[in-house]
Amino acid sequence: MAICLVVLALFVPAGCGGGAGGSGRDLAELVPADALAYAEFTIDTDSEPADRLFEIIGRFSDEDLRAELESAIDENTDGLSFDDLDAAFCDRAAAYAGDFAIADQLIPSAAVFAEVADQGKAEELIELIGSKLPEAQETEVDGITYMSAGPLAYGIVDDLFILGTTAGLTEVAQNADGAEGERLADRAEFTQTERIGREDTLAYGYFDFAALFDLAERAIDSGLADGLSGEGLSPGGSTRQLWSDLLDYYKQGFGLSEIDARPAAFAIDARDDRISFVALTGSNEDRPELSSPTLSASVPEDAWLAVSADDYFKGFEEELRSPILTQSLSFSKERIERVYRKGLGIDLAALGALEDLMIAARGTTVDELSVRAVLGAPKPQGLRAALNGFAKSAILQRLGDVTPLDLPDPAIGYSIESAALPKPLLVGLGKTRLVITYGDDGFEDLLSADGGPTTTGPLADAGPLFGEGGVASGAIDLDAVVALVADAGDATDEDLAKAEPVDLIAVGGRDEGDVRISQFIFTVD
User: Fold this and answer.
1) Is 34 left (phi over 0), alpha (psi -120 to 50) or beta?
2) Number of C-beta neighbours around residue 337 at 10 A
3) For 441-451, what is each residue's pLDDT tens digit?
4) pLDDT tens per residue, range 192-204
5) Quick check: 382 and 353 in contact, CB under 8 A?
6) From CA 283, how far away is CA 511, in angstroms rounded?
7) Is the N end or the C end of the chain the one with fewer CB atoms within 10 Å?
8) Nearest to 65 by CA among 49, 54, 52
9) If DSSP states are collapsed to H, E and C, what string results for 343-395?
10) What does the pLDDT read at residue 373?
11) CA dist., res. 433 & res. 443, Å (int)
12) What is the DSSP string of 127-167?
């Protein structure tokens, strides 16, 4: 309950202005350099990004979110009003989690903290927390006085409101008092992540993934994870092996086995008629330069949906044979391959021929709707047999009538007609690509087309949203989607009205030196 009260209390308007902490103090200077994770967020609902967020959300609802927030605080803080908390804190708050030795200490150093603007109002909050924790006692360590209840510690130290573990509170307090040692704000890996914006965003998060995975490895090796249930998941092996395989699987997913593992950062912002989710990750010489996806030239200019990515299927076959499936979950390679062969009529090895991906849709009525998907296959030999097998598979035969297409050599293909679809599906394999279309009259052209970057269409139009040199890998025009849903008659006018403010959803990014900045953007009318 105390933690909920504090978190709720933090999301209130600012009582003071200034730098990262409200008075010029950089809150990252209060955190140790080896922090596993750090977050910083606005607690000023009158700040520009927060004000913009409320305004954007207001376009989708008649309810006043700001007023509801004020009312919720008034009702849940037992005598402390919204205005009281407004006066208590400055405009930003921060939280961090530090490393810890598994063998010696199971409770890490962690804390959430904010600068105090009104000492009296902040002390009232301390008293409120104390009323919810009657077992709390005043404690003094190294001249720092605070309240403690088991592993939880809280108090006001040097104009900072701090809530966390005992180690976390004392670490922040000692750093605020000028203790020796490197801080997170001094670490080069941290300062490079600030390119996405920290002080001016709604929320910012920093994660040292290499250190987090190292902590997980130490926890597994120590046996700490053995108590976490693995029943039903590891009938043929140990629970420890299950967690080890899971960790290896996710390390590979984050690319830590292939590139230099560097910290990453994330941010959420709202301004200029858009809400942005931003991620920054380290890069190196092995990462290809960000450019327009190879198959994006096959996106129609009038498409309302476009997704294109190079090397999309890279490692897909290996993932299906990963230890987490074949060992920990007791899915043998033979069993996995048998499922694919029986259900889809294809050999798993054939999937290794796939590389790039493009999906696009156009048409704002049910009759006009068409969809195309292109999958790059520079070495399609194995796919030829796979496609023929797929056409004869039980799952496809149940879907509808399958008819071979008369296509120029070396292309092969099939038409699939189903009572559930007004138009046939066409599936074909050309020299270097697998093509699937629905209601698209460009099927044969797509089979023989060459790849290349696009200069027109939704992906090209969305590129500038990501800054200079920005490249879009996905875009959806929501106005077109609303029109299509309206024509299909599957939604009420009220439902359609809720979606109308959204103009575009786009995914993409840009390279800046040795980092990649990826974004997920909502734009509104």
Assistant:
1) alpha
2) 16
3) 889 889 888 76
4) 888 887 877 889 9
5) yes
6) 9
7) N
8) 54
9) HHCCCHHHHHHCCCEEEEEECCCCCCCEEEEEEECCCCHHHHHHHHHHHCCHH
10) 94
11) 12
12) HHHHHH-TT-EEEEETTEEEEEETTEEEEEETTEEEEEEHH
> For the segment 204-229, what is each residue's pLDDT rounded down to a tens digit?
999 887 787 777 777 777 766 565 54
**What does the pLDDT average to over 459-485?**
90
**Residue where the block lists tokens 């509104």:** 524
Return the axis-axis angle of helices 2-10 and 119-132, rounded to nearest 10°: 150
C-alpha triplet 314, 317, 322: angle, nearest 5°: 110
Site of tokens 């709202």: 270
pTM, 2 dp: 0.78
Better-scored residue on pLDDT, 93 or 50: 93
| Under 8 Å between Cβ of 16 and 117 | yes
CA distance 175 to 168: 11
Q: Phi/psi of residue 487, each to 5°?
A: -65, -35
For 155, what's the count of Cα atoms within 13 Å in the CB-facing half-sphere? 23
CB atoms within 10 A of CB 473: 24
